[in-house]
Amino acid sequence: MKINHIFIVITTFFFMVSCNTAGPEAEQEQQASTDTSGLVTLSREQLRYAGLEYGSIKKQRLSNDVSARGELILPVNAIVDLVSLYPGMIKTVKARHGEKVRKDQVLAIIYSPEFVEAQQQYLMVKNQLVMLEQDYERQKDLNLEKIASDKYFQKVRSDYNVAEAELSGLALMLEMAGVDIDRLDEGYINPELQVVTPISGILEYIDVNPGKYIMPEERLMQVVNNEGLLLELSVFEKDIMLVRPGQRVTFTLSNLGNIIYEAEVVSVGSTVRQDTRIVKVFASLKESTTGMLPGMFVASEIHTGEDYVDALPEEAVLRTGNNEYVVFYTLPEWQGPDGTSFALVNVNPGNVEDGFTAISLLQDIPAEAMIVTRGGYYLKTELAKQQE
Question: 232-262: string of b/e by CB count within 10 Å (b at 16+)?
């Protein structure tokens, strides 16, 4: 009985020792995820003051940007100077300076005796051509039968060909002046020479008034279509190898600096200007040009090598005193009624664009980590205080 009693006591002792040994390890394992030693801890009051915001790593389209300055320009086919093919006197002006005009709109009417004479000459040559054609066919048959000489037949053929060419030239000139040749063939002579715009746009320039006598090829008006605006950008020689047609361009106007517009590179210059070492790059606008005018200065970013990468808001990535980059994060279990604890992780930053920075983590963090995207500088300051 005495031996059994001793055995029970010894067994109980080892059982208690075993329980005491296993208990702290299990408790330590249970509390490992909530251990906040070595972290930055902010009280509830500090959290309200810091104004922290949280987020996570997301895929963003970032690139290696090339900065360039330039201006808005018009392509050559967006500016039209209106002239008259015949001299004459301005009879009527049908538009005002600065007015929006549409394609094929009549802007002025000219009284031109020369224009009327050109139509009369066309009809005369056309009638002569009918007679010359008949004579040509008759002489051709006679020449084949050796009744008419070759020399005379060649003269008749030459007269016919000259008249035919003259008629074609007159018809072309009259069509360019807006004459309906089909109606003219019916005998209708247009007494008025019309000034018609071939494009829609704004009537930018007028140098005529009723009663003014104008000469051929004298500029009467100018129509500008601002919807065809281009960006003319100056890119430094060292960056030009990165620029290609099709790349995205974002830009701001000097008078509307807060609004970001988009364009696309359409061509890259092939020469370097010796005085400035720059190359001209042209981009077409992707959106409405309302409010934009030729000559406005722009500041742009040409987005080269774009790709979707892991990124965080630029404010989330902080630089430390030893030239390392870090981000702060917290976990749900580190947030308590008295405050919240934060850890930091080193990152390698990449391209910065549109408020985002490409990053790669140098250490893994839990999937449920809440990354500090705003207010990290407050945590950085608190960490420095703890390390002093």
Answer: bbbbeeebbeebeeebbbbbbbeeeeeeebe
